[in-house]
Request: fold
Amino acid sequence: MQVSHLLLAALLGLTTLFACDNFDVTRECPPCPNNTECLEGDCGCPPDKHDMGSWCLSKSDNLFVAASLDCYCLQTVGLYLSNIAPETGGGGGVQVPASSFSLAGPGSSQGGFSGNFSYYSRPDGDSIVIFLLPMPLAGFPSSCRINDNLYCEADLFGKFHGPDTIQAQVRWRRCEDGAGNWNSFSDTKPLTFVRWK
Reply:
């Protein structure tokens, strides 16, 4: 008699399970790395962002992406150019560049590290200059750890080759050691940015 009651209870449970129209299992994500989001149970990038593998970049008309294994602290970065206005030249005093940018890396999809840059309209290719380039992994202060005992700041000098490519030189200087002493180290690394559509 007890066996038949258990069998009946099991059959009723199965019937209820399969008869339920709104049966839904929602998978939860583990904590998502960098700035990815939980999407249907997996970490990833929503449609309004570019999937960079383990992180996301917000889509934009003026997004340029660079990747280099050789450039300290800037292995893969997104450069957003906005408010692009040619420099008008000197009027004396300190002139703040009119153009603005954001630099993004893993953990910062857009806008975390922003500033002004100079834009120069030239017949042989427009140019940009970013002094005191922020580091997308470390943020501000904008120094990069070059090795175990050396921290440097960087400036970026770039030239447009057509509308979709910026060939840049990143110049590392203004260096100091771990004790805060200035160091004369300097280095220049190439970095090519390509418009990401």
